[in-house]
Amino acid sequence: xxxxxxxxxxxxxxxxxxxxxxxxxxxxxxxxxxxxxxxxxxxxxxxxxxxxxxxxxxxxxxxxxxxxxxxxxxxxxxxxxxxxxxxxxxxxxxxxxxxxxxxxxxxxxxxxxxxxxxxxxxxxxxxxxxxxxxxxxxxxxxxxxxxxxxxxxxxxxxxxxxxxxxxxxxxxxxxxxxxxxxxxxxxxxxxxxxxxxxxxxxxxxxxxxxxxxxxxxxxxxxxxxxxxxxxxxxxxxxxxxxxxxxxxxxxxxxxxxxxxxxxxxxxxxxxxxxxxxxxxxxxxxxxxxxxxxxxxxxxx
Length: 300
What we know:
seven-stranded mixed β-sheet, four-stranded mixed β-sheet, alpha/beta
């Protein structure tokens, strides 16, 4: 029988690690990388596995995950975060996938993000496929970006049952992860790629994110949660730009009269907003005659 190893990397996760561990009891091996937790994470984990390794809490989260992969003995590895859960339906699908004789080296798993108490079906948070199941000798993180996917050498496929992700539970948690982990890393990646902060992007970064989340990814269908998350993610991307500006020494970006320049950028933004409002009005119109009229006469 094919052996499956589960690798979980955790830091101060005493309130959620037990549910994660309970959800993967079907696996042949569970490996926990304890990122120098100061709470009862390790004590709780000992009830479910003896394979616990303590490591420094590295801001590049994927370094310790790769370390966990190196300790796995199974042919297949399932990478899980401490706030994620594997359902019984998904567990059955994982078993079938790992026992199959096909040539697939890795599988994407859809993820249901529960944010501020609500399953986010839109706003870019679903199906949110994550490459988490892979052959041990075929995959690892590149350790360049905190949001990077596992790099798998070989054919990949997708499972159908989603995992559960108990994502942000409070605004404080969102802001903490944003300012201490995600935003500094994203800013550093941009700087390392040669990006230079410019005037227009101070407006475009957050605006593009909001329009993408709220309109293109239909965040409005998630109600007030969708609106707030679209705004929070716009703020996130404004902070990415600000961190880049900081890393580059707060340069004075002189591009002519700042009021004139701002007006030009905002007029372009207004045009894009009108496009999305028109597009969504047409898309949500059921009457075919009205749909044609809207397409013809609504101002672009």
